[in-house]
Design brief:
With 311 residues, this protein is mainly alpha-helical. It has three domains: 9-78, Orthogonal Bundle (Muramoyl-pentapeptide Carboxypeptidase, domain 1); 99-187, no CATH class; 200-302, no CATH class. Helix content is 56%, strand content 6%. It contains 14 helices and seven strands. It has helices spanning 18-29, 43-55, 66-73, 80-92, 121-132, 134-141, 145-152, 156-166, 179-187, 190-214, 220-233, 238-250, 256-269, 275-287, and strands at 9-11, 64-65, 99-100, 109-110, 115-116, 289-292, 295-298. The strands form three sheets. The chain has a three-stranded antiparallel sheet with strand order 3-4-5. α5 crosses α10 and α11 runs antiparallel to α14 (275-287). The longest helix is centred in the middle third of the chain and has 25 residues, at 190-214.
Length: 311
């Protein structure tokens, strides 16, 4: 059942990411103390939201609804894609600033949805920022800035050698200093974050809207599912599409929830690896609740529910 659009919760307990951090920074700036702006919507954030709502004569719920967001931040509420991005970034274990080493053959993985050196997104961002404002790269990477630019302009083989050289230990997950802190500082720059969001929309956001439309996914959960499929699985591949069509021929979906579950299972079945991880993640989005990597998720607290997605 699709719920008509109305004033509703955008952020609540358990949500985490950049949208939560924006709320925390705004609360702190307006004198509602909550501790550090860590991007985690916990008890301190809930208490600060309640205090703000009481001061503004709003319904004191401790959750950020559309009215609270607008009065607190003075900007439009985040779009369905922005909320889906926050969720997928949490699943991926990424943020604007986090960098990982060459543990999976991707070279370096960094940024809000895990932009990689192997697929060229990382070099695209760094070189674009360097072209527009080289001082920002110098600011973050200091005396290593020129080495980084040289690597980004080099062959893929040279880039992978560099990634291995700054990856730590046998697992190669962590990046050694000073590179880890440098990538963190780079990701904290407003212009860099804006470029990350632009690339995420271009690579995943727009294609996922087309996928959602093609498969008749109209709700926020449906769009979030399509977005996550594009980030984790590169879209709905032919094998998954064939399973979806076959399943629907045998057992037509009568609700979007049923359709989302069919799509979630088909994408998982067609995955080359980590099938059950993919399944848990996709079914959590499809149902609006579930566990991913042992963590419980209630997606209505992330601003994703059975409401019609914005256009």
């Amino acid at each position: 059942m699709i719920v008509p659009a109305k004033a509703r919760v955008l952020l609540a307990s358990g949500a985490r990411g950049d949208l939560v951090r924006r709320v925390q920074v705004a609360l702190t700036d307006q004198g509602f103390a909550l501790g550090s702006a860590d991007g985690l919507y916990g008890r301190n954030t809930e208490a600060a939201v309640k205090a703000f709502q009481q001061a503004q004569s709003l319904d004191v719920t401790g959750t950020v609804d559309k009215i609270t967001w607008t009065q607190l931040l003075g900007i439009p509420v985040p779009t369905t894609e922005e909320r889906a991005l926050q969720l997928t970034a949490a699943f991926e274990g990424h943020g604007f600033t986090i960098a990982r080493g060459n543990w999976d053959g991707a070279g370096i993985t960094w940024g809000i949805v895990g932009f990689t050196l192997r697929h060229g997104e990382l070099s695209q961002i760094i070189l674009k920022i360097f072209s527009d404002n080289p001082a920002l790269v110098q600011e973050a990477f200091g005396e290593n800035a020129q080495e980084l630019i040289d690597v980004m302009n080099s062959s893929r083989a040279v880039q992978m050698q560099f990634a291995n050289s700054i990856s730590q230990g046998t697992t190669k997950i962590m990046i050694r200093e000073p590179w880890r802190s440098a990538f963190k500082a780079f990701g904290e720059i407003a212009e860099v974050q804006a470029l990350q969001l632009e690339l995420a929309d271009e690579e995943y956001g727009r294609p996922s809207v087309q996928t959602a439309t093609r498969f008749g996914l109209k709700t926020e959960l449906g769009r979030a599912l399509a977005f996550d499929v594009h980030v984790q699985n590169g879209g709905i591949k032919p094998a998954a599409q064939k399973e979806i069509v076959t399943t629907l021929e045998q057992m037509p979906a009568t609700t979007e929830l049923e359709l989302r579950v069919i799509i979630a299972n088909a994408v998982a079945d067609a995955s080359r690896s980590y099938k059950e991880d993919v399944r848990a993640r996709k079914l959590t989005i499809a149902a609006g609740t579930g566990k991913v990597h042992g963590e419980a998720f209630v997606l209505s607290n992330w601003g994703l529910d059975e409401f019609l997605a914005d256009s």
